[in-house]
Specification:
Helix 2 packs parallel to helix 5. The protein is about 35% helix and about 20% strand. The protein contains six helices and seven strands. The radius of gyration is 16 Å and the shape is globular. Helix 2 links the parallel strand 3 and strand 4. The protein is α/β, with parallel strands linked by helices.
Length: about 210
């Protein structure tokens, strides 16, 4: 779980905020991600990885695993997925998972997804930005920064008794955020151009798989 105030390592990068209740939220997420990927993603050099961080043992922090599970069922053709309800990526195994990604793919481009706490009026919003997030900052955990692009769903109000707040987060908010983010990610990944047959045979091109 990230902290909305200090999760970015590059403060000069501006976030794009999307309200999950917006009827065009999925389209806005897709367009925003496509614009960011235009600058960052090079086929066939990069392997896109969606890293969904969180644990199913906390309602608020289950956002990441829910997104990973939903996205895995949709089976986007351009990305490997890490972090699901069955195999969550959390504080205990995050560093190990990052090492696994780096050892599996020569040039991974990671889209990191996590829950965060924010202001009352921001609950239910989605922040998308370029640069890494700092997981665990919202609950004072020292975890490695990760991601070339980050997506944060604001699940509840921060600033006091964060663990208690996460445990008492409304499931309806988390499910709505998860559905919106997963669909936005899926349509963004599906809209990327397909590799040509020549590109797919280039040396060092990693196989596209779903993991975790």
């Amino acid at each position: 779980m990230s902290n909305i105030g200090n999760r970015l390592l590059s403060p000069h990068k501006k976030n794009v905020r999307v309200e999950s209740t917006d009827p065009f939220a999925v389209q806005k997420i897709r367009c925003t991600l496509n614009q960011m990927l235009e600058d960052k993603y090079q086929q066939p050099v990069h392997q896109l990885v969606v890293l969904c961080i969180g644990t199913d043992r906390s309602t608020g922090d289950a956002l990441g695993p829910l997104i990973g599970t939903k996205l895995g069922r949709l089976q986007p053709r351009h990305a490997a997925i890490f972090g699901t309800l069955d195999e969550p990526v959390h504080a205990v195994n995050l560093a190990e998972t990052i090492d696994k990604i780096n050892n599996t793919y020569p040039s991974p481009l990671i889209i990191a997804v996590d829950a965060c706490l924010g202001r009352m009026e921001s609950v239910g919003s989605i922040d998308i930005g370029i640069g890494p997030m700092k997981p665990g900052a919202g609950v004072n955990k020292e975890l490695p920064a990760v991601g070339e692009i980050h997506i944060n769903g604001i699940v509840n109000v921060g600033g006091f008794l964060e663990y208690f707040v996460l445990q008492n987060t409304r499931l309806s908010v988390v499910v709505r955020l998860a559905e919106t983010i997963a669909r936005g990610l899926y349509f963004s990944l599906q809209s990327l151009p397909r590799l040509s047959s020549d590109d797919s045979k280039k040396p060092g091109k990693p196989e596209l798989v779903h993991s975790g």
